Amino acid sequence: MKVLAIHGKEDIRWEDREVPVPGDGEVRLRVNYVGICGSDLHYYFHGANGEYTIREPLTPGHELSGVIDLDPSGRLAPGTPVTVHPARFGPEVPGLENRPHLRAGGDYLGSAAAHPHRQGGASELVIVEDHMVRVLPDALPLERAALAEPLAVAIHAVNLAGDISGARVLVIGAGPIGLLVVAAAVDAGASVVGASDVRAEPLDRARSLGATELSLVGRDTIDQESYDVVFECSGVGVALTQAVRAARRAGTIVQVGMLPNADIGVNLAPLLAKELTVRGAFRFSTEIDDAVAMLAASDALDPVISHVVPASDAVAAFELARDSSASAKVLLAL
User: Fold this and answer.
1) Residues 6 or more apart from 293 whose CB is under 8 A from it?
2) How much is the CA Rg of the chain, to the nearest whole Å?
3) Which residues does 323 contact at the CB level (< 8 Å), separation at least 6?
4) Does residue 184 sit in helix, strand or coil?
5) Contacts for 234 with CB less than 8 Å, ≥ 6 apart
6) What's the CA gap between 36 and 304, in Å, rounded?
7) In CA terms, which of 41, 86, 205, 272 is 20 to 30 Å from 106?
């Protein structure tokens, strides 16, 4: 079988591997689509994602859809369409009973955090534990189903803000995750959803998903204290400063974008006088089930997928995925 493997900075190969055999409690999937995520871009273009450096060939990909190829238990028939919850959670910890994704000691598909690395889904065939599998409704195409994992991240972030029905919401950063946060906020009943970005093309995509107040950085000014909830999805320090300014007094900021593992310049002075609540958002727990249901109910999120590229042409796909003017979510087809 063929797999993608990142060997180091800007070194990705479409190479042969032996067909894996599932053990007890495992199933083998035939992968159809894998989304390229920001972490995948970091692994390819930099050889590392934050503090996690590639130390052996790493197969990327944690946003995937496909069909059952082999289930030794016989529970799932070959050809059953599925997506995957890409996390294995660590040991139980008091106080985190309802937040298993925060427990230490777990892992995630396509991650170099541990050694040996946890290999990802950009492979014609992949083995996962059976509890990670989510069977897809008949109404959900496999291509759209590849959005389940990033949409779960967005739904989790929106849930962290509490009840936003009737709220004025701003999403800073209209990349793929920001676009899905826009959609999740609209679905959660926000009265107004704004979007801000440094490029016009992502804002056009945000408009198609329900954003009505669009701000192009460098051209438009966001009114201070004008939003009940701000979702910062860019992971840029200056954007967090903007989030603090844009949030109303007693408002909420949810930090969704991955901030760099370094000291950065951020002006948080208004945080005190406004008594803002700032929450970090990290992956998700059970929200992938909500994401599957939302994707099955409508084709409204199809515009988030801008390109589908053969996995054998991964170099071009990764170049495309990092250009937010040219692309939103880029899928690899296997």
Assistant:
1) 137
2) 20
3) none
4) helix
5) 172, 173, 175, 178, 197, 257
6) 12
7) 41
Question: In terms of C-beta density within 10 A (0-12 exposed, 13-18 middle, 19 or more buried), how is residue 95 classed?
Answer: exposed
**Cβ atoms 185, 164 nearer than 8 A:** yes
User: What are φ and ψ of residue 5, in 5° steps?
Assistant: -140, 125
SS3 258: coil
Convert the pLDDT of each residue in 16-40 to its tens digit: 999 999 999 999 999 999 999 999 9
Helix axes 176-187, 148-160, angle to 10 degrees: 60
β-pairing, 87-88 with 107-108? antiparallel
287 sits in which H/E element: helix 287-297
The two tokens of residue 276 are: 């803002």
- pTM over cut 0.90: yes
Q: Give all domains of the chain, ordered by start, each with its CATH number.
A: 2-147+301-333 (3.90.180.10), 152-280 (3.40.50.720)
Q: Which parts of the chain are beta strand (E)?
A: 2-8, 11-16, 26-35, 48-49, 52-53, 63-70, 81-84, 87-88, 107-108, 125-129, 133-135, 168-172, 192-197, 213-216, 227-232, 247-255, 277-280, 305-310, 329-333
For helices 176-187 and 200-208, give the axis angle rounded to 10 degrees.
Answer: 30
Local structure of 58: helix, strand or coil: strand
